Amino acid sequence: MRYGPSVLMRGVMGLATASFLIAQANAATLLREATIGEPPPLDVMLTTADVASVIGRHIFETLYALDSTYTPRPMLAESDRTEDGGRTIVIKLREGVLFHNGKEMTAKDVVASMTRWGSFGARGKLLMAAATSVEATGKYEVTLKLSAPNGAWKALIADVNGGLAIYPEDIAAKAGNRPIEQKDYIGTGPYKFVEWRPNRYVEVERFEGYKPVKEKGDGFAGARVASFDKIRFIPVPDVGTRVSGVQAGDYDYAEMISGDLYESLSKDPSVQVQRTNAPIFGLFFMNSKQGILKDNYKLRRAIQTALDKSQALRVAFGPKDLWNAEGSIFPNGTPWYSTEGASNYSAHDPKKAKELAKEADYTGTPIRLLVSTNYQAHYDEASVFTRQLADAGINVQMMVVDWATLLKMRGQPEQWDIFVTHHSFAPDPLLLTFLNASYPGWWDSPEIGSLRAESINTTDPAARKSTWDKIQSLIYEQVPVMKVGDAYTYDIASPKLKGLNPNGPVFWNVSTK
Questions:
Q1: CA–CA distance, 185 with 192 (Å, rounded to integer)
Q2: pLDDT of 255-275, one tens digit each?
Q3: Which spans in 392-496 are helix H?
Q4: Helix (H, G, I), strand (E, B) or coil at 272
Q5: Which are the contacts of 70, defined by CB distance < 8 A and separation ≥ 6?
Q6: 370 three-state secondary structure
Q7: Predicted local distance difference test score (pLDDT) of residue 5
């Protein structure tokens, strides 16, 4: 992943396509973010795509939100209590919260949203599979009853990414498993949806009826103050164009910048660098539903054994302070850090890999690897691994598509054997996408099913940590995913912006200097 001056100059040419935006921009009231590409539908319940969550967080809100330590804090909820040993959860809602259509949020809206999320949401079954009832027990009170306690319930509903965003009752009730329509992008957030011009921008504007919580903003929690009249999220797939756009003052913020530019941009007075506090980690998902890798754990281990993760991280992210070759799914220093199974993280043993592949009856059939260049790091990691696997006699066929196409294809198991994505830091193991049996990859072996239930059905932290150790060991045995390593990504912004959030690109509590 190398972007020298010639690439950046070519990027300037791409800015002509945004000239009509620039002409309309009022620098004092319009913030322009260059995103990595066109988002999928902004029905945040149904997708874990970051490009949708970045926009969706400004429009939709959840009952709780994660602070800078990734602890859930009340957002649309005011307080809660548990009864019956944790099997009954009673949530009291804030009063006077308005939707963008002017109607007050009540318990009926929450119940309808929770019901839909439990049936069709990307993460909903992790909580709602055990629900025996959810009902409004007052105008501002919701009672959820579970067949067994869930030690992660609050973390599971504290983020819009595949999470329990609260929609108006009529919208949630009629949507079913179909993405909600653009006219129904109605939430309670500090910004409301205005329009979506495909391949040009998604625009939101300040919601004048928004009432922030009283607590100071902290991470994604606390008060959310909208200082800009409008925000435009502009798809700019080319990283060079994103960089030169901020340097020229044509964009105010650009996300996911390549590692090889980190040192030079850190010294560039025309931008400010925003390095994330928490790492993301690349993931190569195995197809557990269909194809050559289905239930073939030995072939999966052969693939894993062949790889040198450090080399891929160095190519994808550049300077060493932007990555760490760490085999634990959770970073060191967090409560979930574990060394179980991690000795198999990055063996880089082509000879052993060939032996395992032979034992798995592998005869050279192409293994289809689905990857996008919208996230340059994904492509770089895939390219390195493809070469390393060839050295071990494992034939990988890269299928390179744009991110929107990948999001569609990954839901079609006949289309791929491995797909590449990344995962943001999660405060609880149950928020990891690959532990969700309905997420593409569809890992649902009897062993993980038992351990998943074991983790869910206890509120004891020590017991849950012990179960997580077993799960991580199983990940290295069955290899539903391969972790590449921890990466500290960075964005860039105009020096005029202040109050930027190191937990991610959100633009409440942000203003100009």
A1: 8
A2: 999 888 999 999 999 999 999
A3: 403-409, 446-456, 461-478
A4: strand
A5: 219, 278, 425, 427
A6: strand
A7: 40
Cα 461 from Cα 237, distance rounded (Å)? 42
**DSSP per-residue letters across 49-73:** -HHHHHHHHHH---SEEE-TTS-EE
Q: Which residues contact 64 (CB under 8 A, 6 or more apart)?
A: 72, 73, 74, 75, 77, 154, 157, 158, 221
| Per-residue model confidence (pLDDT) at position 427 | 86
CA gap 362, 297 in Å, rounded: 12
Each residue's pLDDT tens digit, 397-437: 999 999 989 999 999 999 999 999 999 888 899 889 999 89
Comparing CA positions, the residue from 347, 342, 310, 314 lying closest to residue 329 is 342
In whole angstroms, what separates CA 457 from the centre of its chain? 25
Paired residues of 430 in beta bridges: none
Span 167-178, pLDDT tens digits: 999 999 999 999
What b-and-e string marks burial along 164-184, b requiring 16 or more CB atoms within 10 Å of the CB? Answer: bbbbbbebbbebeeeebeeeb
CA distances 181 to 41, 43, 186, 263, Å, are 8, 8, 10, 43
Long-range contacts of 326-329 (CB under 8 A, 24+ apart): 326/485, 326/486, 327/483, 328/472, 329/281, 329/429, 329/432, 329/472, 329/475, 329/483
pLDDT, mean over the chain: 92
- Cα(422)–Cα(405) distance, rounded to whole angstroms? 16
Express each pLDDT in 40-74 by its tens digit: 999 999 998 889 999 999 999 999 999 988 889 99
User: Containing H/E element for 486?
Assistant: strand 481-487
Torsion over CA of 374, 35, 60 and 167, rounded to 10 degrees? -50
356 has a pLDDT exceeding 90: yes
Instruction: Compute the distance between CA of residue 17 and CA of residue 367 in angstroms, rounded to an integer.
Output: 38
Dist. CA 284–CA 267, nearest whole Å: 34
